[in-house]
């Protein structure tokens, strides 16, 4: 049976070859297949139905005018594969007459023809087969360790392995194509063909001159035509130091006793790690740090400082260090005791690194100017404080001045007591240390018997005199004493204590008498109307007594004045 059919086919072939009915479809169809995969080569674009035709045969162009048979299918017969060469075991036919070619290689790039016999009609449909292969994953090899700025270096090689046709490699930086310009960017491409498979391996080497901004740049390569792309790579960008700055790290203001840190800031990648600090004549080398600290600075520390790279000494930075200082010497200082009438020379010596402002206070009250003392008085006593400021710095200095001397009575006065029965004598004196006050008569003293403030003392004595008295107040301390007298009349009276005018006493007395008489007249008149008396007072006799007293006082006063 098999033999029979074979001979039938051969017969048919001979017939067909010579048949005038044979027609070849003009215009070659082309099919693109993927390398290694099963390729479907359609017969007459798939419009053929194997069951409808008498015979379908697939053959291929062996070259040099020869053709090789692959398979044949007769109506109502099983498919017969007749391929004997490289296609043995690789061919099959689909029900729509397509030739199925498995494990396609580049050698399959030839013309396959499907011959269809339907009735008396014999047609041939040649199909051109092209095989392509996308390269294996694109890879960047020979990647540079790091890129040095401004130096053309081989960045890496992008390899597109086993491709057909050969891959066209484009380099990308941050997803943008890098155009070869022959200077900063240049690309060298090489291609290799595998003699066995005929596949191309393309290598594209990028030579590149990096810039500072390339520190984070992503480089990749792509074969656009087949949509392949390598993974991105980044590079450490190295560059030598170009800029160096000396920073002075210190408190503001920098004052004596502080520490100051010099910091040498230099660019470059990798950053420099060792520096030379030039400290006013002295040089110090530091490693693995960029700082140098000067401890406990003084005014002598002020000056210009520099730093440089150990391996590039010509690159230097400099900065000035200014140590502020404010020294104040006040003379006198502390507690100062002087005698009244003496001089005190006040001197405030200021040594400062800048402009200063001085202010003074005495007992916390601001003074207009520096205190000057010629012929000290007791009122000069007090706490003198000076404040010297310079920017944020300030210094305080002070002295406590105490003026000593024999006491002097400044005032001795008398005053009628509130009840009209007694008199209050007041003895005021100045002096330091506190003088002891004594009176020539006995009496009682009010609660706050005396006060001693700022070298001034005030002492009071309450007396109820039964006779006319001359009372002495005596003040005494280690430096001397003073004494003054005052006359106290037995009648209660007031003394204004003004006993200085000796001239015109008589005129004054007369005048006073007249005035008193006038007032008395008015008073009598008014009291009769009973208008402005307080309930406590006991009638006109009390008032009369008062007036009498006044009158008597005037007389007394004038007599005293006459005595002076
Ligand atoms: C022929 O049939 C195969 C499966 O049998 C199918 O994959 C292919 O698309 C068909 N070809 C055409 C041209 O219709
Ligand atoms: C076709 O093949 C099947 C099994 O593959 C076989 O049973 C059958 O006899 C064959 N037919 C012819 C006509 O050779
Ligand atoms: C490769 O690609 C570049 C740009 O994408 C194009 O100019 C060039 O013609 C291509 N070369 C090939 C062989 O396809
Ligand atoms: C200065 O540095 C020394 C040593 O590090 C430290 O003991 C001292 O407290 C520092 N002085 C100041 C004012 O910071
Ligand atoms: C700082 O230096 C001054 C002299 O410049 C010295 O008197 C002082 O003791 C020093 N202080 C410290 C903490 O070293
Ligand atoms: C104060 O200074 C003057 C001159 O400047 C001097 O004659 C006098 O003795 C000084 N007085 C004191 C108490 O130092
Ligand atoms: C004052 O009183 C004392 C006793 O308290 C007495 O010895 C003295 O004589 C009195 N002096 C006068 C002046 O009265
Ligand atoms: C007190 O002195 C006044 C005048 O100075 C006189 O009139 C009076 O009589 C005197 N009184 C006594 C008690 O001596």
UniProtKB/TrEMBL annotation:
GO terms for cellular component: axon; dendrite; plasma membrane. CDD domains: IgC1. The keyword Cytoplasm does not apply. Residues 1-27 form the signal peptide. GO terms for biological process: adaptive immune response; cell adhesion. Residues 542-564 have a biased composition (Basic and acidic residues). The chain crosses the membrane at residues 501-523. Keywords: Adaptive immunity, Cell adhesion, Cell membrane, Cell projection, Disulfide bond, Glycoprotein, Immunity, Immunoglobulin domain, Membrane, Repeat, Signal, Transmembrane, Transmembrane helix. InterPro entries: CD80_C2-set, Ig-like_dom, Ig_I-set, Ig_sub, Ig_sub2, Surface_Rcpt/Adhesion_Mol. Residues 36-128, 135-238, 242-318, 407-489 form the Ig-like domain. It is a single-pass type I membrane protein. It is found in: Cell membrane; Cell projection, Axon; Cell projection, Dendrite. Residues 528-564 are annotated as: Disordered. This is CD166 antigen-like isoform X2. It comes from Solea senegalensis (Senegalese sole). The lineage of its organism: Eukaryota, Metazoa, Chordata, Craniata, Vertebrata.
């Amino acid at each position: 049976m098999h033999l029979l059919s074979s001979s039938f086919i051969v017969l048919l072939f001979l017939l067909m070859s010579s048949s005038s009915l044979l027609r070849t479809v003009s215009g070659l169809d082309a099919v693109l297949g993927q390398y290694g995969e099963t390729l479907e080569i359609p017969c007459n674009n798939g419009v053929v139905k194997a069951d409808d035709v008498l015979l379908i045969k697939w053959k291929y162009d062996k070259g040099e005018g020869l053709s090789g048979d692959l398979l044949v299918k007769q109506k109502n017969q099983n498919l017969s594969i007749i391929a004997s060469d490289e296609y043995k075991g690789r061919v099959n036919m689909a029900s729509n007459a397509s030739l199925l070619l498995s494990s396609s290689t580049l050698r399959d790039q030839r013309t396959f023809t499907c011959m269809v016999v339907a009735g008396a009609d014999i047609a041939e449909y040649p199909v051109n087969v092209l095989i392509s292969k996308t390269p294996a994953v694109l890879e960047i090899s020979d990647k540079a360790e790091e890129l040095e700025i401004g130096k053309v270096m081989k960045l890496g090689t992008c390899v597109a392995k086993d491709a057909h046709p050969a891959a066209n490699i484009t380099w990308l930086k941050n997803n943008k194509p890098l155009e070869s310009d022959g200077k900063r960017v240049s690309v060298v491409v090489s291609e290799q063909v595998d003699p066995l498979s005929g596949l191309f391996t393309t290598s594209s080497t990028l030579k590149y001159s990096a810039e500072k901004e390339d520190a984070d740049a992503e480089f990749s390569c792509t074969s656009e035509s087949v949509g392949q792309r390598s993974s991105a790579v980044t590079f450490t960008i190295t560059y030598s130091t170009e800029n160096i700055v000396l920073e002075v790290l210190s408190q503001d203001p920098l004052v004596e006793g502080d520490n100051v840190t010099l910091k040498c800031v230099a660019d470059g990648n990798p950053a420099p790690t060792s520096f030379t600090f030039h400290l006013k004549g002295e040089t110090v080398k530091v490693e693995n740090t960029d700082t140098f600290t000067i401890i406990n600075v003084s005014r002598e520390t002020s000056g210009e400082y520099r730093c440089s790279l150990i391996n590039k000494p010509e690159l230097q930075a400099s900065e000035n260090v200014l140590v502020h200082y404010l020294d104040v010497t006040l003379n006198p200082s502390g507690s100062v005791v002087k005698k009244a009438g003496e001089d005190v020379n006040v001197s405030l010596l200021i040594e400062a690194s800048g402009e200063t402002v001085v202010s003074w206070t005495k007992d916390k009250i601001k003074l207009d100017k520096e205190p000057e003392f010629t012929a000290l008085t007791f009122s000069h006593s007090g706490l003198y404080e000076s404040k010297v400021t310079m920017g944020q710095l300030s210094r305080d200095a002070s002295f406590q001045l105490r003026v000593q001397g024999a006491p002097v009575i400044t005032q001795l006065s008398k005053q009628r007591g509130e009840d009209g029965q007694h008199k209050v004598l007041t003895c005021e004196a100045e002096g330091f240390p506190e003088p002891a006050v004594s009176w020539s008569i006995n009496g009682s003293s009010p609660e706050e018997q005396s006060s001693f403030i700022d070298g001034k003392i005030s002492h009071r004595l309450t007396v109820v005199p039964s006779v006319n008295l001359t009372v002495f107040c005596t003040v005494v301390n280690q430096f001397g004493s003073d004494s003054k007298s005052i006359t106290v009349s037995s009648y209660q009276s007031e003394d204004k204590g003004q006993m200085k005018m000796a001239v015109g006493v008589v005129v004054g007395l007369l005048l006073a008498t007249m005035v008193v008489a006038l007032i008395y007249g008015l008073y009598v008149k008014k009291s009769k109307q009973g208008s402005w008396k307080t309930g406590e007072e006991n009638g006109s006799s009390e008032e009369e007594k008062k007036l009498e007293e006044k009158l008597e006082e005037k007389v007394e006063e004038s007599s005293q004045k006459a005595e002076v």
